[in-house]
Amino acid sequence: MTVPRLVARWARTPDWGRVLLIYGAARLVTTLMMLWFAANQRANAWTGPSPDYAAFASIWDGRWYQIVAFSGYPSDLPVTDDGHIAENAWAFMPVYPGVVRIVMGLTQLPWDVAALVVSVPCGFGAAVVFFTLMREVLDRRTALFAVVLFSVAPVSPILQVAYAESLYLLLLGFALLLVMRRRYLTAIPVIAVMALTRPSGLAFALFLLLHLVHRVWTRSRHPFSLSEFVCLSVAGIVSAVMGVAWLLIAWAVTGSMTAYTDTELAWRSSYVGYGPLVPFEPWIDGANWWAQRWFGVDFGAVALVPILAIVAIGLVSRPARRIGVTLRLWVVSYLVYLLAVFFPQSSTFRLLAPVFPIAGAFAVPRSRAYRVAAVAVSLALQWAWLWACWSVSGYDWTPP
């Protein structure tokens, strides 16, 4: 087919079709990368040498999701030799492994294949919802390039492996779209399922609170009726309840009020040992740990100041303002939540995926050179992420 005919066919393709083609092309590139890493993968805790794609895509947390799908959650928490709660399945929310288990029952597919049957279509769906979200704030061409950046993002391989992220981003994008369209009650079931897919209920509750404050503040320019106030408040309360629901469920099953938080803290014990969850302290501890490891000194909170300043400046920059207040409030809310409860390590790159609306800001510049460079840099960082975080090399302390 000639180039003019390809251009003409592209021009006739509906927007959703363009999004699927863009995302599909990006996934093809990522698949080729992952196949190369799989072919060169040595035997490890999850696979033998040179595993096939499905097996390679089901390592790391994929095995934990498989454990949940087959065995559920322990009523007796495992304990280490020194008496602390050990890593266990309670750290992983039930929706994704539950969906995969249903697919396995319907199709008789093995776990690793069924997981991809769920993750890959959800990734395509997330791309379509993301484009729809971007069209609320950006023109059509810019929104399409935002989809390109979303599709080739450094951690985008996580959307085609046995992880919950693709399903979660699909739900998150839909929930944000409903909030932007002020369909607060309709968003409630989406928020509820989302909060049991990845930990995010409290972050979304904070977002809805900030959104409510903004609606009240701007009510003279954008009317905010009493019924909308009530609906938004109800959605926020439900989100907050769902944000602690998994903690309460773990407590009810195990008899330990801190079962979930103790389980999550077990994952950072190899860095800073065991201790209680103190909001915002993990990032200070993490800054100290990483500065000590790489530079032999303790920077503590000082090391975070320039990072936080750059983020703050970025969020008020002209390109970021193009994506609107609502989406930026979500980014702020999620980052605050991340700062409050997570310990910074290699998984942090993946945990930043929910700030994906910020791709719209990076899509604003129209320079062709900039856009080509942005895609090239993203693909290079994608390769680096697969090398550093996904492929396994002996004792690996950089999980994805």
What key phrases describe this protein's structure?
single chain, 400 residues, mainly alpha, globular, GPI mannosyltransferase activity
Strand content: under 5%
Indicate the overall shape: globular
Q: Please outline the major beta sheet.
A: none
Structural category is mainly alpha
Helix count, DSSP H or I runs of 4 or more residues: 20
Order of helices and strands: HHHHHHHHHHHHHHHHHHHH
Beta-strand segment tally = 0
pLDDT < 50 runs, ≥5 residues: none
Distance from N terminus to C terminus (CA atoms, Å) equals 41 Å
How many domains?
Answer: 1
Summarize model confidence as the mean pLDDT.
94
| Rg, alpha carbons | 22 Å
Query: What percentage of residues falls in helices of 4 or more residues?
Result: 55-70%
